[in-house]
Design the sequence.
């Protein structure tokens, strides 16, 4: 049976006034233009309360008031069994202990709740848990910032540019400006939505607003150097290089030189969360002994980006060398679950702009078969499947992310289409999870918006979850927030196996898997497209975690990398959605100088398919393609 939910004690108070009224009242009290207050809040939280839970950098409520007491005190970036490089040609390096996050490492910009409490007389608890108090705190901060730079408490939104920039918390002038520009773009265009707790909030468009950028100079922020970063000009981005050096006696760290896309096409962009905070995680990427690396780091509070590896080079980031060699990795500040449950709008926006920019430059399709979460990357061989990472997790809003990219997840086909795309309403879809609190790992998570649906063995709510023999060889799937074994996620496309009333079955990991999909509140939309099934006469066919070349393609100087099937079965009669062809390639890179790095190319044809929560590969000679 599905466990009962326990509502969190810290949920935003139900007796708070209407959200819109709270903004109006706070704006009037502190003489802040209501459009400015609404615009700042939208960039931080999209006006959501998040059930009183902190963000990835310990920010609370619609105004994202940051409270240092909510920091976990540690950085869990390397937890798990995964070898980030994912290549047996080099043995995995031992993972050193993660550095502790000390109070000195937490910048003052992430302690705004203390100042808000001083300005309003509200307690930290009320600023965390009461919507109206939280909004008052944000308004008080804006007014204080305005006065501190000598700007007037004007009714003209244009005069508040400096205060808005300071609210970002950024120490870099470019980052503060990018945040303020997004706020003013929102004010100019307007916005309206229903929040995660059912409150309708409206920011009427002010198309005539023109920000007075002169106030930014008063903040005297650091000027960063872009140094040839590969970022769109409209976002804040700086070059903080990852370490690359030889390590005695015969090692090097901690990425590989390449010349992409000249020698190899980039096919994927991988979305991670850091399982840690910005400062320490950026520092790990500067440590050559650290056994992982990535191309970009994104800060939660304001969306600022550090590029750390050139996109031509290969990061050790996804745990699968085939994917690593053909992908770009983005690490987002935050945790899958611990101490945080949501990502800021500022970070979503800069990340989406960066992904769109990189995708267009490299010809990467803007779909969920190529914009992958780390949790969608397959294990390389049966022995690595169980230890693969689970980030960014179920609380990443994939539908909103793709809207920000300009590639919204649309319906294609009619109600009886042979394929569907998972797409629950993020705000109202609040499935049960446990395990959000590491100090009490068996405790229920608060009911929070999520992008996933549970998959069951039968079309009923109390049916067992389907099993993942790779993740749990001897046991069943778990409701843990860290276990994706029986979950399908927004944007993923699957072939329909059956329909019964309010339930839909899809083919998933070789099983007919049911999820609740009522017509009154659908959790999936039609998505016709190409599917594969085993060729006639084949009872089963293998699936693979990488599309490596056949043995004959390897020169004598490069050891053959076996094409090892994973432990799953794809049987006759089953169908899986086809993402497209996958090149049979192996990038041989085991030396520091890169002069002997080689791409081995084969003639075997592979297809990428959505086989479970993770993508996998099949040999084209084993399957038949059809339209469903």
Sequence:
């Amino acid at each position: 049976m599905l466990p009962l939910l326990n509502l969190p004690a810290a949920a935003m108070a139900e007796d708070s006034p209407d959200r819109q009224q709270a903004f109006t009242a706070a704006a009037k009290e502190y003489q802040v233009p209501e459009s400015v207050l609404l615009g700042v809040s939208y960039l931080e939280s999209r006006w959501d309360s998040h059930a009183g839970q902190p963000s990835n950098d310990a920010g609370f409520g619609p105004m994202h008031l940051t409270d240092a007491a909510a920091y976990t005190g540690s950085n869990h970036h390397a937890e798990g069994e995964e070898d980030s490089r994912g290549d047996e040609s080099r043995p995995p390096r031992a993972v050193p202990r993660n550095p502790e996050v000390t109070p000195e490492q937490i910048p003052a910009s992430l302690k705004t709740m203390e100042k808000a409490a001083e300005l309003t007389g509200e307690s930290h608890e009320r600023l965390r848990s009461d919507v109206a108090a939280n909004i008052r705190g944000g308004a008080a901060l804006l007014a204080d910032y305005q006065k501190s730079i000598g700007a007037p408490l004007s009714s003209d939104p244009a005069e508040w540019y400096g205060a808005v920039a300071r609210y970002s918390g950024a120490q870099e002038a470019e980052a503060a400006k990018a945040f303020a520009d997004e706020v003013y773009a929102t004010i100019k265009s307007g916005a309206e939505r229903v929040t995660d707790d059912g409150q309708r909030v409206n920011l009427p468009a002010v198309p005539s607003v023109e920000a007075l950028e002169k106030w930014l100079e008063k903040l005297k922020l650091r000027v960063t150097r872009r140094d040839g970063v590969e970022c769109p000009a409209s976002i804040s981005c700086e070059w903080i290089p990852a370490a690359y050096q030889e390590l005695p006696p015969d090692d090097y760290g901690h990425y590989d030189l390449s010349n992409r896309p000249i020698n190899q096409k980039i096919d994927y962009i991988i979305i991670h969360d850091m399982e840690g905070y910005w400062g320490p995680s950026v520092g790990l990427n500067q440590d050559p002994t650290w056994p992982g690396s990535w191309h970009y780091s994104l800060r939660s509070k304001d969306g600022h980006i550090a590029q750390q590896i050139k996109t031509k080079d290969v990061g050790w980031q996804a745990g699968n060398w085939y994917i690593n060699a053909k992908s770009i990795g983005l690490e987002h500040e935050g945790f899958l679950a611990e101490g945080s449950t949501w990502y800021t709008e500022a970070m979503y926006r800069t990340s989406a702009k960066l992904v769109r920019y990189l995708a267009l430059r490299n010809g990467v399709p803007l779909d969920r078969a190529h914009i992958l979460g780390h949790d969608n990357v397959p294990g390389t061989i049966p022995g690595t499947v169980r230890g693969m990472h689970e980030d960014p997790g179920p609380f990443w809003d994939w539908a909103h992310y793709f809207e920000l990219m300009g590639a919204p997840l649309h319906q294609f086909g009619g109600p009886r289409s042979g394929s569907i795309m998972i797409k629950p309403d993020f705000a109202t879809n609040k499935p049960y999870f446990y395990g959000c609190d590491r100090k009490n790992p068996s405790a229920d998570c608060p009911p929070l918006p999520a992008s996933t649906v549970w998959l069951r063995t039968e079309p009923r709510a109390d049916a067992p979850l389907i099993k993942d023999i790779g993740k749990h060889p001897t046991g069943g799937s778990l409701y843990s927030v860290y276990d994706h074994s029986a979950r399908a996620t927004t944007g993923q496309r699957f072939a329909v196996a059956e329909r019964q009333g309010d339930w839909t079955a899809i083919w998933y990991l070789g099983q007919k898997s049911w999820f609740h999909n009522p017509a009154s509140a659908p959790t999936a939309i039609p998505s016709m497209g190409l599917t594969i099934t085993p060729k006639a006469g084949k009872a089963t066919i293998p699936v693979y975690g990488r599309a490596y070349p056949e043995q004959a393609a390897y020169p004598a100087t490069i050891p053959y990398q076996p094409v090892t099937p994973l432990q799953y079965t794809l049987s006759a009669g089953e169908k899986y959605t086809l993402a497209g062809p996958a090149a049979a390639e192996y990038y041989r890179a085991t030396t520091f100088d890169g002069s002997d790095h080689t791409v081995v190319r084969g003639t075997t044809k592979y297809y990428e398919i959505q086989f479970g929560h993770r993508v996998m590969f099949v040999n084209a000679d084993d399957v038949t393609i059809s339209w469903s």
Remarks:
- The chain has twelve helices and 30 strands.
- The domain at 243-525 is CATH 3.40.80.10 (Lysozyme-like).
